[in-house]
Amino acid sequence: MDLTLDILQDAITNLAKKARKDSIKRRQRRNLSVPAAKWIAPAMIKGRQGYALSVVLATVGCSHAISEAGGCTMCSYLLDGTEEHPTHEQLIQQFEVALGKLEEKPVPYSVKIYTSGSFLDTREVSIIARKAILEKIGRDERIEEVVLESRPEYVSDSLMHEVKSILGDRKIEIGIGLESTNDQVRSLCINKGFTLDKFQEALEICKTHGIGIRAYVLVKPPFLTERDALLDSVSTIIKAAEMGITTASINPVNVQSYTLVERLWRSRDYRPPWLWTVVEILKQARKEVNHTIPILCDPVAAGKSRGTHNCGICDSSIIQAIRSFSLSQDLDVFDDLSCGCRNLWEHVLTHEDISLVSHL
Amino acid sequence: MTRFLIDKGHDGPIRKGELEVGDSRFVCPLLIGPNTKLPFEVVGRDLASKAVSLKILPSLTNDISLPDGPEPLILPSLPNSSLFGRDAHRTLLDHQLDLLDSKDESFQERAVVRTSFGLTNDTYLEFLSRAKTFGIRSVAFQFDGYLGQNDLNAVDLRISTPLSWLTLALGRVDLSLLPLLVYLGFDLIDISRAEEAASKDLRLWKLSTEEFGEHYDERYCSCPACNGVSLSDLSESERYKVLFKHNSEQYRILLSECIELSNRGLLRWLVESMTHATPNLAGFTRRISSTFYDYLEEFTPTIGSGVIPLIGPESYWSPTVKRFRDYVRIRYTPPSQKKAILLLPCSARKPYSDSRSHKRFRNAIDSALGSAKHEIAETILTSPIALVPRELERAYPAANYDIPVTGKWDAEELEIAANALVDHLSKFDVSVPVLVHASGGYRAIVEQVEDQIDQDIIYTNIVGSPTRRSSLQSLSEKLTELKEGIPLEKGHSTELEDTLRATADFQFGTGAGSLLIPEESKIKGKLYRMVVSKIGKEQTCAFVSENGVLSLTLFGGELLKPLGRYWARFEGEKVRGGALFAVGVKSADPNIRPGDEVIVLNRDDNVVAVGRSEMSGREMCELDYGHAITFRHKVK
Ligand code: SF4
Ligand SMILES: [Zn+2]
Ligand SMILES: [Zn+2]
After folding, report:
1. Chain B: nearest CA to A229, how far in angstroms?
2. ipTM of the complex, rounded to two decimals
3. Quick one: B27 and B156 in the same domain?
4. Is 80 exceeded by the pLDDT of residue A119?
5. Domain check: are B336 and B352 in the same one?
6. Contact B172 A353 (CB under 8 A)
7. Given CB atoms, is A355 within the 8 Å cutoff of chain B?
């Protein structure tokens, strides 16, 4: 079986690389002083209604995606990356621009820092820039929650020490794209390039510094049937909760440009997950997982053909329910959902398992 | 224990058989899936059913701790495989073998291998040779229902599969696709589409799909599900149930139509008529008919009775039709005494001789030529079987086909007939003139290839129809001119020996006629009933008018043996019983088709029986079950 897996793994890595080939060339020249993206949304912060800022810093992009490893099968963040390295001044400036968004919004604030890769990867964000950004937060009393996104290999004891000492007793989480607790799914279907052990290691380091882990869980990577995907996400959330994560963030696959997923989708051999699947995952996981761990979901491109979607009629009411669940953690919001397409979804759940034919 | 037994009864690659699962027996071709006798159960995911079911192992299953029992078990693979290259596909197949590695024979017999989108034929063939050491006897193919490259590949792989294996079609099989898959020899067909369509509020019909909406005028249906209810009045969930049942019923109805028609040699006709469902299906069927012609032909019977409707362009290349043209082109040799050729139009009534028009032609010929008539070669022009020498007018399907008569020929049928005519006339000496008594499209065939014909061409003068008095008059006149000009000599009728020899060549290949009916033969009988040929006192063969076939005696079999064709060898000394079973056949002429007259040789190469084949030569060698040859005569 190991040999079998290796060959499949190679095949999928190659496909992922091939799909990505042009995206590196297509990276745009950008203004390196503004972030790639920034948005704010109301959020519950330490039990109070406040605002969350999300910022995606423009960097050279994820090392895993640029490397020979080929990057993940569903991710085109590389495309958001820049051709040249931004200077540390520019990176700091990007962050300041984003922070400006929060002006005049009622406190408290939460800040989530993403890059098109890992904030903690010094190849993307230099030590100087990182320190400066963290210190900026450290000085800002209004910010009570911080999430920093990174692959687990950049989480080290000394770095967590640094983070903790700068941010103090704010609620801190390192956001890691765990995707699945099943090594086979993570490596074969996603080409993620790290093992569960590596994740666990990062988690233990964070724990010793009182830093939490926000695990991103991917719903329906390629090479899984709809039901494989449903079962895998539910067991991932439960297992990750047992391991000690502090937040679970559920991400249904959306079809991004220049990815293997996109090529499959164009060949009518892949469909993003049904919204019913996402609802079912949230329901089953919420019942099993300790209530101190929020289970969040803010699906990208939901209701569109490239994102998680249903029949088109019921999509918006279900998306709304998912969003309000993320705020309230209350399963009752799903009670009244119904639509004729549920029969079709139930058909897909069993018949994809049987036929291995993608049902669009 | 799972076992697949194939029984006699071909109409194209379709085979009738029986699937044994423990104590249960299922007649194949069989519909599988929800609402059928053989539903699915995904191991560890679906509720275990008490009834017999097809077990499915989820993808990425590494270790099988499997339910015991006799049921077929579909091995795991991966979805989204369409972009995979050769190595990955090989791996997906080998992974399935790995799972079987440590298992015993009874387990391996249950295993159903899965192919996946993007798997090429080469990789599949390599896999089959590796799979030989395992007890696998079943394979499942995937259909996405788009009738594009994926579905074409699935058919391609099915065709490469060992003949004795059970074959499954999984995926989206639309109702209109069912006859084609049955025809192609899929034994178990997934009809989950009935459920999918119901969940999309669709009611399936043979040629179209009905979609429910508001204020909709629904169709009338008398099936047990729809009977007496107005679907538009039902709640969504009630309607779903009705539609699901209706849709499943339609598959059942259509399958039974396939089976019944195949018993009468009409399955191909159904497949052709289904092409009217969608242009997509028409294109798919045409591509399959041309790409896989050899496979389709191999299992298409050479005999039949009743009327074979040949309606549109789909029929031009159907195996029965093209094979007839090929046999005439390759196997037919004109009798040596023919000094002139007469081309005539076909008639609706078959055999042509029985028709009113051909009776009139005959009178004209008789009156002009008298007993010199034996030196005239009559050839009938027609579509889509192109041309029929008079001697073969009772052969299958010349005596059976029926076409729409409009007097208009399309470009393709003209070309088919014209090419056949050029080939046919090239078998005659250049000095043999061609008299054409035909008008309209028939005449256009000749005109189209005039410059490729070496012989002199003479047209009779046809006013209106060729059977009009004045036209017949012109025919008589031209024949009389020929008789005097060539000249045509008087002689006794050669009708019987010409027919028997031509039929022998047609059936067994060139040269068979002179072996089986040598000069010294005594031939007696009526062409419209039965003709018997003897040497001395011993019968060699008989021509049976009803199906236009020569049946052999043991002596006839001996005479034919040197030809080296249409034989099957059995490794014993003497045959017993009324039939030879495939398990007893060690080797056979691969040119044997179902319905052929064949000779049975024993291990010492002696003819021990003659009879009719029930399967193709390759099947006789490869299958372990089933009726291979029904004896007509055997050595006592
Ligand atoms: S998902 Fe994360 S780790 Fe994977 S390629 Fe994208 S940015 Fe890199
Ligand atoms: Zn819906
Ligand atoms: Zn009905």
Report:
1. 11
2. 0.92
3. yes
4. yes
5. yes
6. no
7. yes
Q: Domain spanning A2-351: which superfamily?
A: Aldolase class I (3.20.20.70)
Q: What is the enclosing helix (H) or strand (E) of B612?
A: strand B607-613
* Domain limits for position B1: 1-191
| Cα of B392 vs its chain's centroid, Å | 20
CATH number of the domain residue B598 falls in: 2.30.130.10
* pLDDT score for A6: 81
pLDDT reading at A350 higher than 70: yes
Q: Residue B599: CB partners within 8 Å, gap ≥ 6?
A: B552, B557, B560, B561, B566, B567, B568, B607, B609, B610
Judgement on whether residues B556 and B578 belong to the same structural domain of the protein: yes
A286 lines ligand 1 (CB under 6 A): no
pLDDT at residue A1 above 50?
Answer: no
Return the domain boundaries, chain A. 2-351
Residues 238-267 of A with CB under 8 A from B: 260, 263-264, 267
CA distances in angstroms from A184 to A6, A178, A223, B62, B140, listed in the order given: 11, 13, 11, 11, 25
pLDDT beyond 60 at B307: yes
Burial class (CB within 10 angstroms; exposed 0-12, middle 13-18, buried 19+) of B529: exposed
**What's the number of domains chain B is made of?**
4
Distance in angstroms (rounded) separating the CA atoms of residues A346 and B34: 13
**B412: contact with A, CB 8 A cutoff:** no
What's the pLDDT at B460?
96
How far from chain centre, in Å, is Cα B200?
36
Q: What is the CATH number of the domain that holds B403?
A: 3.40.50.10630
Tens-digit pLDDT profile for residues B428-454: 999 999 999 999 999 999 999 999 999
> To the nearest whole number, what is the mean pLDDT of chain B?
93
Regarding predicted confidence, which is higher, B100 or B615? B615
pLDDT tens figures, A204-231:
999 999 999 999 999 999 999 999 999 9
Q: Are residues B227 and B184 in the same domain?
A: no
Cα(B623) to centroid of ligand 2, in Å? 50
Q: Residue A3 pLDDT more than 70?
A: no
Q: Does one domain contain both B366 and B448?
A: yes
Lowest mean per-residue pLDDT among A40-49, A206-215, B169-178 = A40-49
State which residue of chain B sits closest to A18, comparing Cα positions.
B83
C-alpha B348 – ligand 1 centre gap (Å): 73
Boundary residue ending a domain (B263, B280, B298): B263
pTM: 0.94
How confident is the model at residue A24, as a pLDDT?
65
| Percent above pLDDT 70 for chain A | 97
Chain centroid to CA B320: 6
Task: Using pLDDT thresholds of 50, 70 and 90, give the confidence band for residue A339.
Answer: very high
A62 lines ligand 1 (CB under 6 A): yes
Give B148→chain A minimum CA distance, Å: 11
Q: How many helices (H) and strands (E) does chain B have?
A: 19, 30
- Identity of the highest mean pLDDT range in A195-199, B60-64, B462-466: A195-199
Those residues with Cβ within 8 angstroms of residue B74's Cβ, 6 or more apart along the chain or in another chain: A354, B54, B55, B56, B57, B112, B114, B140, B168, B170
- Tell which atom from ligand 1 comes closest to the C-alpha of A116: 7
- Our CA-based measurement puts residue A111 at a distance from the nearest CA of chain B, in whole angstroms, of 38
Q: Give dist(CA B558, CA A239) in Å, integer.
A: 79
Same-domain check for residues B522 and B478:
no
Cβ distance of B199 and A355 shorter than 8 Å: no
CA pair distance B135, A120, nearest whole angstrom: 55
Confirm whether B502 is domain-assigned. no
